[in-house]
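Chapter review. Work through the record for Sorting nexin 4 before attempting the end-of-chapter questions.
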Amino acid sequence: HLETDSVTEGHNPVPDSLWRRYSEFELLRNYLLVTYPFIVIPPLPEKRAEFVWHKLSADNMDPDFVERRRIGLENFLLRVASHPVLSSDKIFFLFLTENGWKEAVFETGFLAKSDSRLKALNATFRVKNPDKRFSELKHYSDELQSVTSQLLRVRARVADRLYGVYKVHGNYGRVFSEWSAIEKEMGDGLQSAGHHMDAYAASVDDILEEEEHYADQLKEYLFYAEAVKAVCRKHELLQYELETASQDLASKKQQQEELAAGTVRTFSFKGMTSKLFGQETPEQREAKLKVLEEQIKEGEVTVTEKTLECEEFVKNAWKDIERFKEQKDHDLREALMSYAVMQISMCKKGIQVWTNAKECFSKM
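Structure tokens for Sorting nexin 4:
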């Protein structure tokens, strides 16, 4: 559910709010992925809960999970809206302002070419001369994905144990309350201590809900790692196409040289045919040379175009990657510091509970 401004300068008034399904967000992101392959496209939040601790519902329709996913989708829109290139995209603007935005996507011809382009981005290409920067970036993305996954798993195990520790304090509260019933002079102190323990045990639900917020921030960069790898794969594809075009051009030039000299230095079916059925006539050779000459001209144009395309991609991609690195460093630093502050606060609350309990015991 999107809240929008009611008036937009230069455009028709837009609705106060719009409804969007998760699948529509997926369509928008795929459109951005295909249209801007040199950009690290912000990821969507998880569709199904991952890295959950056992007391947390894994139900996709659980209200708490649905709310966290809504916040994640809102964060995705904010990421796109703050991007220097993506924020100016016409389809993105229509997504925010028009109910019929999908018709505009159809008109771009995106759907006709998206399947092949997305499959190409998911394919693996072995290039002969890989760019060291992109190779290192791809390796870093794999490592980032690995460490964030491990961190989320550890956090889920800690949450399980933390939940148990807090709830055990509820048993303290029950025992102190029962004990207070048989003690006349110590009864009030025991009862008060029991109330402190009960309140401490009940506070774990809010604490772990807050923890989920920090876990979601880590998950975003777990998914961002895949977005970075998509940029690397696109570069590999362009490099592969350039190398293939260059090899094809070199092969055509070799054929031209051999045909002009009347020699064949490499084994070929055509060479065997010539030996078996006689040499080609000068007219046939001249016709083949003419065809090869045209193919070489086309090949040189293709290599030039592919070279320029690859160079332009590298320039734009590396500019966006540097922007992403700054964003990542800032976000993860803030998230980890906030998580540490929350843990410190939680420990202080535990100390305060037992300090209060001590004061209750001292008054008995």
